[in-house]
Write the structure tokens for this entry.
Amino acid sequence: MNAHEIDYRIFGEEMQYVEIELDPQEGVVAESGSFMMMDADIKMNTIFGDGSNQETGILGKIFSAGKRILTGEGLFMTVFTNQGQGKHQVSFASPYPGKIIPIDLTEFGGKFICQKDAFLCAAKGVSVGIEFSKKLGRGLFGGEGFIMQKMEGDGMSFIHAGGTIAKKTLRSGELLKVDTGCLVGFTKEVDYDIEFVGGIKNTVFGGEGLFFATLRGPGTVYIQSLPFSRLAGRVLAMAPRNGGDRGEGSVLGGLGNILDGDNRF
């Protein structure tokens, strides 16, 4: 195996974290900001790219790290290595309510494609790169643009998604239509495209966007019930405006303030 062989446990229900158990000299690579805690003998090191050693030389490493800018990520990743004796643990937390999904790349032909902010961490040796869309319509209207993230190798990877996760196994030729924001990731065999919703009423008044993501089997697809963009939109919609309170349905909200003794409007 090229990737380190790691053990793990996932804790929690809605705000999960994953605990990675490392043997001596084993390592795990993670995005900045996902670290939660680690044992004393785990050492942290910031590196260019993902540490998969696919690129050699300083120019190759800079090129590999530079591609990450296209996904909105930073130039650097962090690798955590067990430099002590015996097994030690390091943990990474989910950034918002949802689920952590373990992805064994050996079960998916060595490659998994996901939305660009889904990656959490992976065994050292797994390559974390970018996946360009070859279809103009998918790139312009697919919600994730021309670029998605891909994980390649033979190790364990972990992605995070919002709300409850649905795992769909598609038969050859089977078609699934998904809201573009709810799509988390899929295996390399899946044919991914976008489809116009159609119909004047659906387009203007449907409130579900103009396009579906269409996924045709065979392959495995992961779908999230609560995209972060949807959660953030609801929070912003209920945020106070001009320093005032924003009640649940403005008239009733104001009435509630009076009954509660709060006369601010």
